[in-house]
Specification:
CATH superfamily: Carbonic anhydrase
CATH class: Alpha Beta
CATH architecture: 3-Layer(aba) Sandwich
Distance between the termini: 18 Å
Shape: globular
Bound molecules: zinc ion
Mean pLDDT: 97
Order of helices and strands: HHEHEHEHHHHHEE
Helix content: 40-55%
Strand order of the largest sheet: 2-1-3-4-5
Strand content: 15-25%
Number of helices: 9
Largest sheet: 5 strands, mixed
CATH topology: Beta-carbonic Anhydrase, Chain A
Low-confidence stretches: none
Length: about 200
Amino acid sequence: MARPQNAREAWHALVEGNHNFVAGTPAHPRQDADVRRAIANKQKPFAALFGCADSRLAAEMIFDVGLGDLFVVRNAGQVIAETILGSLEFAVEVLKVPLIMVLGHDECGAVRAAMDASSGKLEVEGEFIHNLVDRMMPTLERSHAAGETSIDDITARHVADTIAELLERSKVISSAVKTGKLAVVGANYKLELGDIHMVVSHGDL
Ligand SMILES: [Zn+2]
């Protein structure tokens, strides 16, 4: 595979790698000592991924890529925060990735926690767990208003809202999309099948 040079090629490389993973025939590319040494002085990832920290959402595995391929940012429930925005701006402005993928997944514990919190059933003590869940409440409210009750619908809306917030808050990222240097794709990952499905996209793919 030639190194992806733009958003379309980056998206196709990720889809192709994911097909390998789903089929159980991963190529495990670019994971050897030669590659490790060759890129020690400079990284040139072809995409950034902002995904849930769920242990089953192992980015390089599910997309069958290697060292230096993906700039990965993750937290529980892929919830926007200033450090997340800074990391993604770094990927776009300094590393010049042509693609950001925001990746949610089915049966997300953080989405479930937000659903429980909205119905007064969240039973955890951690102050910062509550803080993280609170940040998902506007999405829960919009889902509620739209009559969406399934976790899948809420998760898809959360991915779309996360990207909307990313584009609204980061001028670097929204102008890169406007000038055609960057595309932002939202996708959902299925834990059992291991496949991804596009939820939303901004920019040319
Ligand atoms: Zn999750």
